[in-house]
Amino acid sequence: MNDRVYNFSAGPSMLADEVIVKLRDDMLSYEGTGMSVMEMSHRSKVYLAIFEDCKARLKRLLGIGEDYEVLFMHGGATGQFSAVPLNLMKTGKADYIITGNFSKKAAEEAAKFGNVSIAYDSSENNHSRIPSSDELKLSADADYVHLCSNNTIFGTEWKTFPDTGSIPLVADMSSDILSRPVNVSDFGLIYAGAQKNMGIAGMAVVIIRKDLAVKDSSRMPVLYNYAVEIKNDSMYNTPSSYSIYVLDEVLKWIESIGGLEEMEKRNRAKAALLYDYLDSQNYYLPHAQKDSRSLMNVTFTTPDKDTDSEFAARAAERGLVNLKGHRLVGGIRASIYNAMPIEGVRKLVDFMDEFAGEKR
Ligand code: PMP
Predict the structure, then answer these.
(1) Are residues 80 and 109 in the same domain?
(2) Residues with Cβ within 6 A of ligand 1?
(3) Which of 4, 318, 337, 351 has the greatest number of C-beta atoms within 10 Å?
């Protein structure tokens, strides 16, 4: 493992060494079967045990109640931008809270299927903050309210969620699911692409309150139909079988370290290292406003674009890779998801201080 780098990629991103080693050990022959999980029928007894274990662990870790179903779907989080309005727009109206690029994309997709009302849009402050509840213009008759819990590109994150009463709250948790405990019963539906805190790309995990999956489905694409997925236990067609197995291994790792409370503690400690450093100096400029800072994606800039590029290139020479900001916003972005060890963040802070010292 000595040549592994600290990978600050926003996704696909780092997996814990323990998980990667387990995947390697299982690669040629999973538990004496003589085959890789990749090569197994999704209907086989051995695979179904993995599948059931994964669902049970996710339910246990997140405290998901009996009135919810866990679905493993295709098409990543973007697929859910379409699936959510297709299934949940019962009367054709929804409120969308825009706090970044992905929530904007979700709103644009939903507008193809019904009336989308924008309850808040942080574009005017370059998505540097999360609104308070009283800034939201929520409609009394929306079918649901949609938000994105962590803004992967700009580095902001909801600390508490708005109370939408009897109107279901839908959250895209792609970049912070499993980073902290969450009260699932506050949501009608939670979805997340798997390639950050849940494993590898290609799959979306959906946690849906069962009563919401009941729309007339005559014209709905079958793979985006929640009722069909619930009825067939996510196996209407071949599920992303290897991704589900990787998720199971990630969940085992999270349980082994002490669950989501411990995960949050570690994530807070890592983020504090970076933000405390940023607040202690005046060379780098943090992007997110203090009360909206993400524990997962830490965004800042050096004095100019060329220096941003130099910073990322020089950091990579030290084994601190993928620090360049998203192409839409530039600057630097350090994604410090669950699997990033605190040593990686310490090394980054040391490098930042050294680099700033040279430039001043
Ligand atoms: N939502 C969020 C918050 C994301 O970070 C991403 C991907 N970075 C997406 C949606 C899109 O996910 P996917 O590529 O799985 O469709």
Answers:
(1) yes
(2) 11, 76-78, 102, 148, 152, 172, 174-175, 193
(3) 337
